Amino acid sequence: MREIKKIIVHCSVSSFGDAKIIDGWHRELGFSEIGYHYVILNGKRHSKDKYCDKTDGNIELGRDIQKQGAHCKYQNKNSIGICLIGNKSFTKKQFRSLLVLIERLKDRFGFLPVYGHYEMPSGISQGKTCPNFDMDKFRRENTLYA
Known about the structure:
The protein is α/β, with parallel strands linked by helices.
């Protein structure tokens, strides 16, 4: 069993997508498979799709959680990567699903601090803004981490 010490939240920096599409993007970059462990949909799988309420907030599995991720340089060994589809705008359903997923992971692994990619050393050095929302505010407004 891999030792999990933290959760790192990302965004796809795209207006559409799902785990299969991100897997393809990551393979094009030379990854063996998708780098994230979970993907939270925004109701738009493909660029030409209209919004679909039924898929908004759906949580899809990415890389097996027992495998080291490929989502945050120097942090992959002991973290879980969660990607929200979107760039600077996310849905209420996505945030609810993120909270549900964090709670499930907390139940399974115990307390896990939650960070945005931009808060990690490699994110800071690369000028990352991902997941493009204020993680301090997110943590303050959600008592899962207290």
